[in-house]
Amino acid sequence: MTARLESFTQAEIETLEAIMELPDPLLADWLTGRLPIPPEHDQPMLRAMRDAAGQETPQQ
Fold first, then answer.
1. CA distance between the termini of the chain
2. Which end of the chain is more exposed for a tag (fewer CB within 10 A), N or C?
3. Strand, coil or helix: what is 27?
4. So what's the pLDDT on residue 6?
């Protein structure tokens, strides 16, 4: 993830910071798909995080 963060634009960093300010329980519900992302928060980065959270971690 660090390599990806280094490539973020200033706007993407600001978007990520805004996402990190959201209440943890809501964010957890949205990222796990328990609740849909509401229209006022629906944006590409949050959808990408939700999609990534839904992927299984490879077993080691």
1. 19
2. C
3. helix
4. 85
